[in-house]
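Case study.
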Amino acid sequence: MEGPAGGAPEHARLIRKLRSIADLSPDAVRAVERLPLRLRELPADSDIVSEGDQPTECCLIVEGWVARYKLLARGQRQIMSFHIAGDIVDLQGLHLKVMDHSLCALTPCGVAFIPHAALEEAMRRHPVLQTAFWRDTLVDAAVFREWMAGIGRRTAYQRIAHLFCEQFTRLRAVGLGDENGFELRITQAEIADALGLTSVHVNRVLKALRQDRLIETPGRYVNILNWEGLRSAGDFDPSYLHLRAAALNERSP
Amino acid sequence: MEGPAGGAPEHARLIRKLRSIADLSPDAVRAVERLPLRLRELPADSDIVSEGDQPTECCLIVEGWVARYKLLARGQRQIMSFHIAGDIVDLQGLHLKVMDHSLCALTPCGVAFIPHAALEEAMRRHPVLQTAFWRDTLVDAAVFREWMAGIGRRTAYQRIAHLFCEQFTRLRAVGLGDENGFELRITQAEIADALGLTSVHVNRVLKALRQDRLIETPGRYVNILNWEGLRSAGDFDPSYLHLRAAALNERSP
DNA sequence: CGTGTTATTGACCAACATCAAACTTAGTGG
DNA sequence: CCACTAAGTTTGATGTTGGTCAATAACACG
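After joint prediction, the assembly is written out as follows.
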């Protein structure tokens, strides 16, 4: 019954993620492995949680890409973060009872719901887990701040370069993504909604990034031709991701 | 020994703030009152904490306005939040050891430093305090998200209207601010850095807001002439502040 | 294959930035 | 109390990034 990482693959993803940002005791790992998961498959474009909901479970992403977004008055959408396997996307629901935004599957997704009560019990028994989960919500906030700085003060070219650096780094930190690139499982319109741009402009900037030989984009794949060039174009410094050194090293070429 | 709110005025501000977002037991209130505070007066334009620091205390604002900001590659500044009396501005330092941004006094400020150890001890003894502080960091994150949506998708006019609604609501929620307005203790350049604009453009938009009879700005004061107009111009809905009903009602005209 | 989605490109436009200068306000020191 | 100064506000002229509108091309999937 025990998988290669000492639990079901769903638990393993979560443990890998928590290990990328915090140090877990063996005891805590076992507690995570015992968390009850209610597994579900969601089609693309379906909401996982919606603004106004009062969830009683948290949602762990097992497979696929998820977006956190708000809809504004004139129907515009702002995506505030992308999430990948291992992320628990609504830990905040533990303490903020009403959702002030929505979460949506961008690709077909495997997700696992964990009752708030089970998480609370695990945290009570293992304060290190409490630290890890709180820390995780703080890292999310740090990413919000970095995105805010990008949207407010960086050019479209810098923003897209920065986004690619961030996604690549985050995927590598949890053992996904390849040596020199990653599969970008979102459309240009979704990039636009994340960066405060239009899809037309995203398309033009991507062309420029290709022409500058920073990336190649065969199909849905982003192949990084020149990491240092992309990093400096995007003014990317991964400190704000607060990754542990071990996880960060996964990125180096 | 007990003041009007049952403690020194510095503690009272913090309690008032925590009460605006969470329900505190009398026991927890007493624990907050016993938190050791190291008081300091800071001149305007001085950093309270800087990017790269590894603080061992948290900073409570007792008087004045504070900005959270990042400096980017080309010397541009993005302000990510404003803070007022009662806010603990770097609770995240409890779990993220290295600051990924800075905090700066915009006005002369009274601040109180609280050792991490004292906060941790209080939270261990009173789990409700732990909930309240975690919740506070989650509300901060909710505000980041709202600002991100504004910078990414709202016009300059909407953003400024929204900011004024937010500041007014937050000041009222902790018992500061007047019936129909508040003292705006920041410059137009600082508004610009918060909203991803230039000070020139902020100035022009303020003129438009005045001409539309939404506000008056005698000196540093923002007088709200038409709350409903300002609210709808800024597409402001206070849900994301996650204020308790009692605190929210302080805003109604 | 067809049909809907996504990507790409062009022509034109608007919001906001940049540059520069004048004006107002708030301190500061004599 | 008044000059002097520095900071902040206001305004105009002009430039640029990125938006809008629209059409076509390339995919993806049943």
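Observations recorded in class. The interface with chain A takes residues 68, 70, 72-73, 76-78, 80, 92, 94-96, 98, 100-101, 130-131, 134-135, 137-142, 144-149, 151-154, 195-196, 235, 239-240, 242 of chain B (CB under 8 Å). Residues 1-6 of chain B have pLDDT under 50 and may be disordered. We will return to this complex in the next lecture.
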